[in-house]
Amino acid sequence: MPDPGAATYPGTWKKPPLIKNDLLRWGLWLSAAIYLALALGTLEVNWSRVAEGIPRGGKFLAAFFPPDIFSRWDSILDGILESIWMTVISTVAGIGLSVPIGLGAARNLSSRPVYLFCRGIIAVSRTFPEVILAIFAVKLFGFGPFAGFIALSIGTIGFYAKLLAEDIEDMDPVQAEAIRATGASWFQWINYAVQPQVMPRMIGLAVYRLDINFRESAVVGIVGGGGIGATLLTAFDRYEFDSAAAILLIIIGIVMCLEYTSGYLRRWVQ
Amino acid sequence: MAVFQTSDGPVWKRRTTRQQWLTWIAWLIGAAIVVFSAKLISDKTIWFFVLDAGVQAADMAERMVPPKWSYMEDLWKPVWDTINIATLGTMIALVLAVPVAFLAARNTSPHPTVRAVALFVIVSSRSINSLIWALMLVAIIGPGMMAGVIAIGLRSIGFCAKLLYEAIEEIDTKQVEAIEATGASGPQKLAFGIAPQIMPAFAGISVFRWDINIRESTVLGLVGAGGIGIQLDASISTLAWTQVSLILLVILGTVIVSEWVSAKVRHAII
Protein backbone atom coordinates (compact mmCIF):
# COMPACT_ATOMS: atom_id res chain seq x y z
CA MET A 1 0.00 0.00 0.00
CA PRO A 2 1.84 3.19 -1.12
CA ASP A 3 1.83 6.16 1.18
CA PRO A 4 -0.37 8.82 -0.48
CA GLY A 5 1.75 11.61 1.01
CA ALA A 6 5.01 10.39 -0.54
CA ALA A 7 6.44 12.23 -3.51
CA THR A 8 6.14 10.43 -6.82
CA TYR A 9 9.48 9.55 -8.32
CA PRO A 10 9.99 9.10 -12.05
CA GLY A 11 10.04 5.48 -13.06
CA THR A 12 12.51 5.90 -15.88
CA TRP A 13 15.92 7.51 -16.06
CA LYS A 14 17.73 8.99 -18.99
CA LYS A 15 21.43 9.66 -19.18
CA PRO A 16 22.09 13.41 -19.09
CA PRO A 17 23.80 14.66 -22.24
CA LEU A 18 27.52 15.44 -22.11
CA ILE A 19 27.08 18.93 -23.53
CA LYS A 20 24.32 20.80 -21.72
CA ASN A 21 23.64 23.45 -24.36
CA ASP A 22 21.22 22.00 -26.96
CA LEU A 23 22.25 24.40 -29.69
CA LEU A 24 25.95 23.68 -29.23
CA ARG A 25 25.37 19.93 -29.10
CA TRP A 26 23.33 19.80 -32.28
CA GLY A 27 25.66 22.29 -33.95
CA LEU A 28 28.64 20.05 -33.24
CA TRP A 29 26.79 17.01 -34.60
CA LEU A 30 25.76 18.94 -37.70
CA SER A 31 29.25 20.24 -38.43
CA ALA A 32 30.68 16.77 -37.89
CA ALA A 33 28.16 15.40 -40.40
CA ILE A 34 28.96 18.11 -42.95
CA TYR A 35 32.69 17.51 -42.57
CA LEU A 36 32.23 13.77 -42.94
CA ALA A 37 30.20 14.24 -46.13
CA LEU A 38 32.84 16.57 -47.57
CA ALA A 39 35.71 14.28 -46.59
CA LEU A 40 34.06 11.18 -47.99
CA GLY A 41 33.35 13.15 -51.15
CA THR A 42 37.07 13.72 -51.71
CA LEU A 43 37.84 10.02 -51.51
CA GLU A 44 36.95 9.61 -55.20
CA VAL A 45 36.17 5.95 -54.88
CA ASN A 46 35.46 4.48 -58.26
CA TRP A 47 33.02 1.78 -57.19
CA SER A 48 33.05 -0.15 -60.46
CA ARG A 49 36.83 -0.24 -60.24
CA VAL A 50 36.54 -1.48 -56.66
CA ALA A 51 34.07 -4.19 -57.66
CA GLU A 52 36.45 -5.32 -60.36
CA GLY A 53 39.39 -5.07 -57.98
CA ILE A 54 38.01 -7.17 -55.14
CA PRO A 55 38.68 -10.57 -56.75
CA ARG A 56 42.06 -9.29 -57.90
CA GLY A 57 42.71 -8.07 -54.36
CA GLY A 58 41.77 -11.52 -53.14
CA LYS A 59 44.36 -13.02 -55.45
CA PHE A 60 46.96 -10.56 -54.16
CA LEU A 61 46.10 -11.47 -50.59
CA ALA A 62 46.34 -15.14 -51.42
CA ALA A 63 49.81 -14.50 -52.85
CA PHE A 64 50.96 -13.53 -49.33
CA PHE A 65 50.26 -17.06 -48.13
CA PRO A 66 52.04 -19.18 -47.30
CA PRO A 67 54.92 -16.93 -46.22
CA ASP A 68 58.16 -18.04 -47.83
CA ILE A 69 61.20 -17.46 -45.66
CA PHE A 70 63.67 -19.68 -47.40
CA SER A 71 64.03 -18.63 -51.02
CA ARG A 72 65.35 -15.18 -50.06
CA TRP A 73 66.77 -16.16 -46.70
CA ASP A 74 70.22 -14.64 -47.28
CA SER A 75 68.98 -11.18 -48.15
CA ILE A 76 66.34 -11.29 -45.40
CA LEU A 77 68.93 -12.19 -42.78
CA ASP A 78 71.24 -9.50 -44.10
CA GLY A 79 68.48 -6.88 -43.96
CA ILE A 80 67.32 -7.86 -40.48
CA LEU A 81 70.84 -7.75 -39.07
CA GLU A 82 71.51 -4.41 -40.70
CA SER A 83 68.27 -3.09 -39.20
CA ILE A 84 69.25 -4.32 -35.75
CA TRP A 85 72.73 -2.75 -35.87
CA MET A 86 71.23 0.45 -37.19
CA THR A 87 68.66 0.45 -34.37
CA VAL A 88 71.25 -0.08 -31.64
CA ILE A 89 73.71 2.53 -32.81
CA SER A 90 71.10 5.17 -33.61
CA THR A 91 69.38 4.71 -30.25
CA VAL A 92 72.67 5.09 -28.40
CA ALA A 93 73.79 8.07 -30.46
CA GLY A 94 70.36 9.71 -30.33
CA ILE A 95 70.12 9.37 -26.56
CA GLY A 96 73.69 10.61 -26.15
CA LEU A 97 72.76 13.76 -28.05
CA SER A 98 69.40 14.05 -26.29
CA VAL A 99 70.85 14.35 -22.80
CA PRO A 100 72.52 17.77 -23.26
CA ILE A 101 69.61 19.01 -25.39
CA GLY A 102 67.09 17.74 -22.86
CA LEU A 103 68.97 19.44 -19.99
CA GLY A 104 69.00 22.64 -22.00
CA ALA A 105 65.30 22.38 -22.79
CA ALA A 106 64.25 22.05 -19.15
CA ARG A 107 62.97 25.41 -17.99
CA ASN A 108 64.16 25.00 -14.41
CA LEU A 109 67.77 24.26 -15.37
CA SER A 110 68.72 26.55 -18.19
CA SER A 111 68.65 30.18 -19.13
CA ARG A 112 66.06 31.59 -21.51
CA PRO A 113 68.10 31.68 -24.77
CA VAL A 114 69.44 28.15 -24.26
CA TYR A 115 65.93 26.97 -23.48
CA LEU A 116 64.49 28.44 -26.67
CA PHE A 117 67.35 27.10 -28.80
CA CYS A 118 66.99 23.55 -27.47
CA ARG A 119 63.19 23.64 -27.74
CA GLY A 120 63.63 24.73 -31.36
CA ILE A 121 65.83 21.72 -32.14
CA ILE A 122 63.26 19.42 -30.52
CA ALA A 123 60.33 20.98 -32.40
CA VAL A 124 62.01 20.64 -35.79
CA SER A 125 63.09 17.04 -35.30
CA ARG A 126 59.66 16.11 -33.95
CA THR A 127 57.73 17.63 -36.82
CA PHE A 128 59.17 15.64 -39.68
CA PRO A 129 58.53 11.91 -39.80
CA GLU A 130 61.62 9.69 -39.93
CA VAL A 131 60.94 8.99 -43.59
CA ILE A 132 61.36 12.63 -44.62
CA LEU A 133 64.48 12.89 -42.48
CA ALA A 134 65.71 9.74 -44.22
CA ILE A 135 65.08 11.19 -47.69
CA PHE A 136 67.34 14.11 -46.89
CA ALA A 137 69.91 11.93 -45.15
CA VAL A 138 70.08 9.77 -48.27
CA LYS A 139 70.55 12.87 -50.43
CA LEU A 140 73.37 14.10 -48.21
CA PHE A 141 75.16 10.92 -47.14
CA GLY A 142 74.40 8.55 -49.99
CA PHE A 143 72.47 5.28 -49.99
CA GLY A 144 72.95 2.77 -47.21
CA PRO A 145 72.55 2.28 -43.47
CA PHE A 146 74.50 5.42 -42.55
CA ALA A 147 71.67 7.59 -43.88
CA GLY A 148 69.17 5.53 -41.90
CA PHE A 149 71.33 5.89 -38.81
CA ILE A 150 71.36 9.69 -39.15
CA ALA A 151 67.58 9.85 -39.72
CA LEU A 152 66.76 7.63 -36.75
CA SER A 153 69.18 9.48 -34.46
CA ILE A 154 67.57 12.81 -35.26
CA GLY A 155 64.14 11.27 -34.74
CA THR A 156 65.31 9.95 -31.36
CA ILE A 157 66.38 13.44 -30.26
CA GLY A 158 62.89 14.84 -30.84
CA PHE A 159 61.32 12.10 -28.76
CA TYR A 160 63.81 11.55 -25.99
CA ALA A 161 64.99 15.09 -25.34
CA LYS A 162 61.40 16.31 -25.10
CA LEU A 163 60.39 13.66 -22.56
CA LEU A 164 63.62 14.13 -20.61
CA ALA A 165 63.05 17.88 -20.43
CA GLU A 166 59.46 17.39 -19.29
CA ASP A 167 60.51 14.89 -16.67
CA ILE A 168 63.14 17.27 -15.33
CA GLU A 169 60.60 20.08 -15.18
CA ASP A 170 58.31 17.83 -13.12
CA MET A 171 60.97 16.75 -10.63
CA ASP A 172 60.80 17.35 -6.91
CA PRO A 173 62.59 20.68 -6.27
CA VAL A 174 63.06 19.91 -2.56
CA GLN A 175 65.69 17.25 -3.22
CA ALA A 176 67.46 19.47 -5.71
CA GLU A 177 67.59 22.26 -3.14
CA ALA A 178 68.96 19.91 -0.51
CA ILE A 179 71.84 18.88 -2.77
CA ARG A 180 72.52 22.49 -3.69
CA ALA A 181 72.60 23.41 0.01
CA THR A 182 75.56 21.04 0.50
CA GLY A 183 77.58 23.29 -1.80
CA ALA A 184 77.53 20.98 -4.80
CA SER A 185 78.90 22.17 -8.12
CA TRP A 186 76.61 22.24 -11.17
CA PHE A 187 77.72 18.80 -12.37
CA GLN A 188 77.40 17.31 -8.91
CA TRP A 189 73.98 18.87 -8.65
CA ILE A 190 72.88 17.29 -11.94
CA ASN A 191 74.38 13.96 -11.01
CA TYR A 192 73.04 13.65 -7.46
CA ALA A 193 69.82 15.67 -7.50
CA VAL A 194 68.42 15.44 -11.01
CA GLN A 195 69.72 12.17 -12.40
CA PRO A 196 68.38 9.81 -9.68
CA GLN A 197 64.90 11.33 -10.00
CA VAL A 198 64.58 10.93 -13.77
CA MET A 199 66.65 7.77 -14.29
CA PRO A 200 64.04 4.98 -13.82
CA ARG A 201 61.61 6.52 -16.28
CA MET A 202 64.35 7.39 -18.72
CA ILE A 203 65.67 3.83 -18.85
CA GLY A 204 62.16 2.62 -19.64
CA LEU A 205 61.82 5.23 -22.37
CA ALA A 206 65.21 4.29 -23.82
CA VAL A 207 64.05 0.72 -24.27
CA TYR A 208 60.79 1.96 -25.73
CA ARG A 209 62.66 4.13 -28.20
CA LEU A 210 64.80 1.14 -29.18
CA ASP A 211 61.54 -0.59 -30.03
CA ILE A 212 60.31 2.40 -32.09
CA ASN A 213 63.64 2.72 -33.88
CA PHE A 214 63.51 -0.89 -34.95
CA ARG A 215 60.04 -0.38 -36.40
CA GLU A 216 61.11 2.81 -38.13
CA SER A 217 64.22 1.13 -39.48
CA ALA A 218 61.87 -0.99 -41.57
CA VAL A 219 60.59 2.21 -43.17
CA VAL A 220 63.72 4.24 -43.81
CA GLY A 221 64.84 1.46 -46.14
CA ILE A 222 61.95 2.28 -48.48
CA VAL A 223 63.60 5.59 -49.36
CA GLY A 224 67.11 4.12 -49.53
CA GLY A 225 68.23 4.21 -45.91
CA GLY A 226 69.27 0.56 -45.66
CA GLY A 227 68.00 -2.19 -43.40
CA ILE A 228 65.08 -4.58 -43.74
CA GLY A 229 62.95 -1.92 -45.47
CA ALA A 230 65.11 -2.16 -48.58
CA THR A 231 64.64 -5.93 -48.66
CA LEU A 232 60.91 -5.49 -48.16
CA LEU A 233 60.62 -2.97 -50.97
CA THR A 234 62.55 -5.29 -53.29
CA ALA A 235 60.20 -8.12 -52.41
CA PHE A 236 57.19 -5.92 -53.26
CA ASP A 237 58.76 -4.67 -56.47
CA ARG A 238 59.45 -8.21 -57.65
CA TYR A 239 55.88 -9.25 -56.72
CA GLU A 240 57.34 -11.80 -54.32
CA PHE A 241 54.54 -11.32 -51.82
CA ASP A 242 55.28 -14.57 -50.02
CA SER A 243 58.77 -13.30 -49.15
CA ALA A 244 57.25 -9.96 -48.13
CA ALA A 245 54.81 -11.76 -45.82
CA ALA A 246 57.72 -13.63 -44.26
CA ILE A 247 59.58 -10.36 -43.67
CA LEU A 248 56.51 -8.78 -42.08
CA LEU A 249 56.07 -11.78 -39.78
CA ILE A 250 59.73 -11.56 -38.76
CA ILE A 251 59.33 -7.85 -37.98
CA ILE A 252 56.24 -8.60 -35.87
CA GLY A 253 58.10 -11.37 -34.05
CA ILE A 254 61.08 -9.18 -33.23
CA VAL A 255 58.88 -6.31 -32.07
CA MET A 256 56.97 -8.71 -29.81
CA CYS A 257 60.23 -9.96 -28.28
CA LEU A 258 61.41 -6.39 -27.75
CA GLU A 259 58.12 -5.48 -26.13
CA TYR A 260 58.32 -8.36 -23.65
CA THR A 261 61.97 -7.57 -22.89
CA SER A 262 61.21 -3.92 -22.38
CA GLY A 263 58.31 -4.70 -20.05
CA TYR A 264 60.56 -7.01 -18.04
CA LEU A 265 63.40 -4.47 -17.97
CA ARG A 266 61.14 -1.65 -16.84
CA ARG A 267 59.80 -3.73 -13.96
CA TRP A 268 63.37 -4.64 -13.01
CA VAL A 269 64.50 -1.02 -13.01
CA GLN A 270 61.63 0.31 -10.91
CA MET B 1 73.60 -1.80 0.04
CA ALA B 2 76.54 -3.40 1.70
CA VAL B 3 78.66 -2.73 4.75
CA PHE B 4 82.25 -3.99 4.72
CA GLN B 5 84.18 -4.62 7.93
CA THR B 6 87.68 -3.22 7.64
CA SER B 7 90.41 -2.62 10.17
CA ASP B 8 89.23 1.02 10.38
CA GLY B 9 85.67 -0.01 11.19
CA PRO B 10 82.63 -0.56 8.96
CA VAL B 11 82.58 1.10 5.55
CA TRP B 12 79.36 1.66 3.60
CA LYS B 13 79.22 1.08 -0.14
CA ARG B 14 76.28 1.26 -2.51
CA ARG B 15 76.81 -2.18 -4.04
CA THR B 16 78.23 -5.48 -2.89
CA THR B 17 81.33 -6.72 -4.70
CA ARG B 18 79.20 -9.15 -6.70
CA GLN B 19 76.76 -6.44 -7.81
CA GLN B 20 79.69 -4.21 -8.70
CA TRP B 21 81.13 -6.88 -10.98
CA LEU B 22 77.76 -7.65 -12.59
CA THR B 23 77.20 -3.97 -13.32
CA TRP B 24 80.62 -3.70 -14.92
CA ILE B 25 80.06 -6.81 -17.03
CA ALA B 26 76.68 -5.49 -18.21
CA TRP B 27 78.29 -2.19 -19.24
CA LEU B 28 81.10 -4.08 -20.99
CA ILE B 29 78.68 -6.20 -23.01
CA GLY B 30 76.62 -3.14 -23.89
CA ALA B 31 79.67 -1.20 -25.02
CA ALA B 32 80.88 -4.16 -27.08
CA ILE B 33 77.53 -4.41 -28.87
CA VAL B 34 77.58 -0.71 -29.68
CA VAL B 35 81.13 -0.77 -31.01
CA PHE B 36 80.39 -3.89 -33.04
CA SER B 37 77.28 -2.31 -34.63
CA ALA B 38 79.16 0.88 -35.35
CA LYS B 39 81.82 -1.13 -37.16
CA LEU B 40 79.29 -3.08 -39.22
CA ILE B 41 77.48 0.10 -40.23
CA SER B 42 80.71 1.87 -41.10
CA ASP B 43 81.79 -1.12 -43.24
CA LYS B 44 78.68 -0.66 -45.34
CA THR B 45 79.12 3.08 -45.66
CA ILE B 46 80.79 4.80 -48.58
CA TRP B 47 82.75 7.37 -46.61
CA PHE B 48 83.49 9.48 -49.64
CA PHE B 49 79.82 10.45 -49.84
CA VAL B 50 79.62 11.09 -46.10
CA LEU B 51 82.64 13.43 -46.15
CA ASP B 52 81.03 15.22 -49.06
CA ALA B 53 77.86 15.88 -47.06
CA GLY B 54 78.74 19.41 -45.96
CA VAL B 55 79.17 20.61 -49.53
CA GLN B 56 75.98 18.82 -50.56
CA ALA B 57 74.03 20.36 -47.70
CA ALA B 58 75.21 23.85 -48.56
CA ASP B 59 74.34 23.27 -52.21
CA MET B 60 70.88 21.95 -51.35
CA ALA B 61 70.17 24.79 -48.92
CA GLU B 62 71.13 27.27 -51.62
CA ARG B 63 68.76 25.67 -54.09
CA MET B 64 65.90 25.51 -51.58
CA VAL B 65 65.60 29.23 -50.88
CA PRO B 66 63.48 31.08 -51.57
CA PRO B 67 60.48 28.71 -51.44
CA LYS B 68 58.38 28.93 -54.59
CA TRP B 69 55.32 30.58 -53.06
CA SER B 70 53.26 30.44 -56.26
CA TYR B 71 53.26 26.64 -55.99
CA MET B 72 50.95 27.02 -52.99
CA GLU B 73 47.87 27.05 -55.26
CA ASP B 74 48.56 23.44 -56.15
CA LEU B 75 49.02 22.46 -52.51
CA TRP B 76 45.67 23.35 -50.91
CA LYS B 77 43.97 20.24 -52.26
CA PRO B 78 46.74 17.83 -51.12
CA VAL B 79 46.74 19.41 -47.65
CA TRP B 80 42.98 18.94 -47.41
CA ASP B 81 43.43 15.33 -48.59
CA THR B 82 46.14 14.75 -45.99
CA ILE B 83 43.89 15.99 -43.19
CA ASN B 84 41.03 13.83 -44.47
CA ILE B 85 43.22 10.73 -44.64
CA ALA B 86 44.24 11.27 -41.02
CA THR B 87 40.70 11.98 -39.79
CA LEU B 88 38.90 9.19 -41.63
CA GLY B 89 41.69 6.74 -40.81
CA THR B 90 41.45 7.65 -37.13
CA MET B 91 37.68 7.12 -37.22
CA ILE B 92 38.03 3.65 -38.76
CA ALA B 93 40.67 2.80 -36.20
CA LEU B 94 38.52 3.93 -33.27
CA VAL B 95 35.49 1.94 -34.44
CA LEU B 96 37.59 -1.20 -34.76
CA ALA B 97 39.73 -0.56 -31.68
CA VAL B 98 36.84 -0.48 -29.18
CA PRO B 99 35.80 -4.15 -29.55
CA VAL B 100 39.44 -5.25 -29.75
CA ALA B 101 40.20 -3.35 -26.54
CA PHE B 102 37.27 -4.95 -24.69
CA LEU B 103 38.42 -8.39 -25.85
CA ALA B 104 41.99 -7.65 -24.80
CA ALA B 105 41.31 -6.21 -21.34
CA ARG B 106 41.79 -8.81 -18.64
CA ASN B 107 38.57 -7.90 -16.81
CA THR B 108 36.22 -7.86 -19.81
CA SER B 109 37.75 -10.54 -22.04
CA PRO B 110 35.46 -13.57 -22.40
CA HIS B 111 38.27 -16.13 -22.61
CA PRO B 112 42.10 -16.21 -22.39
CA THR B 113 42.34 -17.52 -25.97
CA VAL B 114 40.28 -14.58 -27.24
CA ARG B 115 42.52 -12.28 -25.25
CA ALA B 116 45.63 -13.78 -26.85
CA VAL B 117 44.17 -13.28 -30.32
CA ALA B 118 43.22 -9.68 -29.53
CA LEU B 119 46.72 -9.01 -28.19
CA PHE B 120 48.21 -10.46 -31.36
CA VAL B 121 46.03 -8.15 -33.46
CA ILE B 122 47.26 -5.21 -31.39
CA VAL B 123 50.92 -6.13 -31.69
CA SER B 124 50.82 -6.80 -35.43
CA SER B 125 49.00 -3.56 -36.14
CA ARG B 126 51.50 -1.65 -34.00
CA SER B 127 54.64 -3.24 -35.32
CA ILE B 128 54.00 -2.52 -39.00
CA ASN B 129 54.43 1.11 -39.91
CA SER B 130 51.64 2.88 -41.79
CA LEU B 131 53.95 3.35 -44.76
CA ILE B 132 54.35 -0.42 -45.08
CA TRP B 133 50.61 -0.94 -44.67
CA ALA B 134 50.17 1.61 -47.46
CA LEU B 135 52.74 -0.18 -49.64
CA MET B 136 50.77 -3.38 -49.22
CA LEU B 137 47.37 -1.77 -49.76
CA VAL B 138 48.51 0.09 -52.87
CA ALA B 139 49.48 -3.30 -54.27
CA ILE B 140 46.07 -4.73 -53.36
CA ILE B 141 43.50 -1.95 -53.96
CA GLY B 142 45.48 0.37 -56.18
CA PRO B 143 46.94 3.82 -55.52
CA GLY B 144 44.84 6.64 -54.12
CA MET B 145 43.49 8.11 -50.90
CA MET B 146 41.50 4.99 -50.05
CA ALA B 147 44.71 3.00 -49.54
CA GLY B 148 46.01 5.77 -47.30
CA VAL B 149 42.87 5.89 -45.18
CA ILE B 150 42.86 2.14 -44.64
CA ALA B 151 46.61 2.09 -43.96
CA ILE B 152 46.26 4.78 -41.28
CA GLY B 153 43.26 2.92 -39.87
CA LEU B 154 45.02 -0.43 -39.66
CA ARG B 155 48.11 1.13 -38.13
CA SER B 156 46.17 3.01 -35.48
CA ILE B 157 44.02 0.11 -34.26
CA GLY B 158 46.87 -1.32 -32.24
CA PHE B 159 47.82 2.00 -30.66
CA CYS B 160 44.25 2.97 -29.72
CA ALA B 161 43.28 -0.51 -28.56
CA LYS B 162 46.40 -0.83 -26.40
CA LEU B 163 45.86 2.45 -24.57
CA LEU B 164 42.13 1.78 -24.31
CA TYR B 165 42.46 -1.71 -22.85
CA GLU B 166 44.95 -0.40 -20.29
CA ALA B 167 42.32 2.18 -19.34
CA ILE B 168 39.67 -0.54 -19.11
CA GLU B 169 41.88 -2.63 -16.84
CA GLU B 170 42.33 0.32 -14.49
CA ILE B 171 38.63 1.13 -13.98
CA ASP B 172 37.03 1.29 -10.56
CA THR B 173 35.25 -2.05 -10.09
CA LYS B 174 32.93 -0.66 -7.41
CA GLN B 175 30.93 1.32 -9.95
CA VAL B 176 30.47 -1.73 -12.15
CA GLU B 177 29.37 -3.71 -9.11
CA ALA B 178 26.85 -1.02 -8.21
CA ILE B 179 25.37 -1.15 -11.71
CA GLU B 180 25.33 -4.94 -11.50
CA ALA B 181 23.46 -4.76 -8.19
CA THR B 182 20.58 -2.94 -9.90
CA GLY B 183 20.08 -6.05 -12.04
CA ALA B 184 21.70 -4.71 -15.18
CA SER B 185 22.44 -7.05 -18.05
CA GLY B 186 25.89 -7.51 -19.57
CA PRO B 187 25.56 -4.80 -22.26
CA GLN B 188 23.99 -2.42 -19.74
CA LYS B 189 26.94 -2.96 -17.41
CA LEU B 190 29.22 -2.08 -20.32
CA ALA B 191 27.25 1.01 -21.26
CA PHE B 192 26.62 2.45 -17.79
CA GLY B 193 29.35 0.91 -15.62
CA ILE B 194 32.45 0.82 -17.81
CA ALA B 195 31.89 3.21 -20.72
CA PRO B 196 31.52 6.42 -18.65
CA GLN B 197 34.73 5.61 -16.81
CA ILE B 198 36.84 5.19 -19.94
CA MET B 199 35.21 8.04 -21.88
CA PRO B 200 37.83 10.69 -20.97
CA ALA B 201 40.64 8.26 -21.84
CA PHE B 202 38.92 7.42 -25.11
CA ALA B 203 38.57 11.06 -26.12
CA GLY B 204 42.17 11.78 -25.16
CA ILE B 205 43.46 8.78 -27.11
CA SER B 206 41.53 9.68 -30.25
CA VAL B 207 42.80 13.25 -30.36
CA PHE B 208 46.33 12.10 -29.56
CA ARG B 209 46.27 9.53 -32.35
CA TRP B 210 44.74 12.02 -34.78
CA ASP B 211 47.67 14.32 -34.15
CA ILE B 212 50.14 11.48 -34.85
CA ASN B 213 48.19 10.45 -37.94
CA ILE B 214 48.41 13.92 -39.48
CA ARG B 215 52.17 13.56 -39.26
CA GLU B 216 52.14 10.05 -40.72
CA SER B 217 49.74 10.83 -43.54
CA THR B 218 52.08 13.52 -44.87
CA VAL B 219 54.45 10.79 -46.10
CA LEU B 220 51.98 8.18 -47.35
CA GLY B 221 52.12 9.73 -50.80
CA LEU B 222 55.69 8.48 -51.19
CA VAL B 223 54.30 5.03 -51.94
CA GLY B 224 51.27 6.36 -53.85
CA ALA B 225 48.65 6.45 -51.12
CA GLY B 226 47.48 10.06 -51.46
CA GLY B 227 48.10 13.27 -49.58
CA ILE B 228 50.85 15.85 -49.81
CA GLY B 229 53.52 13.12 -49.98
CA ILE B 230 52.74 12.69 -53.69
CA GLN B 231 53.76 16.30 -54.38
CA LEU B 232 56.81 15.87 -52.16
CA ASP B 233 57.89 12.76 -54.03
CA ALA B 234 57.30 14.38 -57.42
CA SER B 235 59.18 17.53 -56.46
CA ILE B 236 62.16 15.59 -55.11
CA SER B 237 62.29 13.36 -58.21
CA THR B 238 62.28 16.39 -60.50
CA LEU B 239 64.83 18.17 -58.27
CA ALA B 240 62.43 21.09 -57.84
CA TRP B 241 64.00 22.10 -54.54
CA THR B 242 62.13 25.38 -54.19
CA GLN B 243 58.88 23.38 -54.25
CA VAL B 244 60.31 20.91 -51.74
CA SER B 245 61.08 23.67 -49.28
CA LEU B 246 57.57 25.07 -49.63
CA ILE B 247 56.07 21.62 -49.05
CA LEU B 248 58.21 21.15 -45.94
CA LEU B 249 57.02 24.50 -44.64
CA VAL B 250 53.42 23.50 -45.30
CA ILE B 251 53.92 20.20 -43.46
CA LEU B 252 55.50 22.08 -40.57
CA GLY B 253 52.51 24.44 -40.47
CA THR B 254 49.95 21.63 -40.64
CA VAL B 255 51.65 19.70 -37.87
CA ILE B 256 51.90 22.75 -35.62
CA VAL B 257 48.20 23.55 -36.15
CA SER B 258 47.15 19.96 -35.48
CA GLU B 259 49.28 19.85 -32.35
CA TRP B 260 47.71 23.08 -31.14
CA VAL B 261 44.18 21.76 -31.85
CA SER B 262 44.82 18.48 -30.07
CA ALA B 263 46.36 20.24 -27.07
CA LYS B 264 43.32 22.55 -26.85
CA VAL B 265 40.84 19.69 -27.14
CA ARG B 266 42.66 17.54 -24.60
CA HIS B 267 42.81 20.50 -22.24
CA ALA B 268 39.06 21.02 -22.65
CA ILE B 269 38.26 17.36 -21.98
CA ILE B 270 40.55 16.56 -19.08
Provide the succession of SSEs of chain B: EEHHHHHHHHHHH
Which strands sit side by side, in order, in the main sheet of chain B? Answer: 1-2
State mean pLDDT of chain A (0 to 100 scale). Answer: 82
Count of runs of 4 or more consecutive helical residues of chain B: 11
CA-based gyration radius of chain B:
26 Å
Descriptive notes:
The complex is a heterodimer of chains A (270) and B (270). Chain A is mainly alpha-helical and 270 residues long. Helix content of chain A is 76%, strand content 0%. Chain A is built from ten helices and no strands. In chain A, helix 8 packs antiparallel against helix 10 (241-269). Chain A starts with 21 loop residues before the first helix and ends with a helix. Chain B has eleven helices and two strands, in the order ββααααααααααα. Chain B has helices at 17-43, 47-51, 53-64, 76-104, 112-127, 130-141, 145-169, 173-181, 186-217, 229-237, 241-269; strands spanning 2-6, 9-13. The chains are: A mainly alpha (270), B mainly alpha (270). At the A-B interface, helix 1, helix 2, helix 3, helix 5 and helix 6 of A face helix 1, helix 3, helix 4, helix 5 and helix 6 of B.
Features:
heterodimer; A: 270 residues; mainly alpha; 0% strand; extended; B: 270 residues; two-stranded antiparallel sheet; 11 helices; 2 strands; 76% helix; flat
Walk me through the topology.
The complex is a heterodimer of chains A (270) and B (270).
Chain A: H1 22-42, H2 47-63, H3 73-104, H4 112-127, H5 130-141, H6 145-169, H7 173-181, H8 186-220, H9 228-237, H10 241-269
Chain B: E1 2-6, E2 9-13, H1 17-43, H2 47-51, H3 53-64, H4 76-104, H5 112-127, H6 130-141, H7 145-169, H8 173-181, H9 186-217, H10 229-237, H11 241-269
Antiparallel strand pairs in B: 1-2
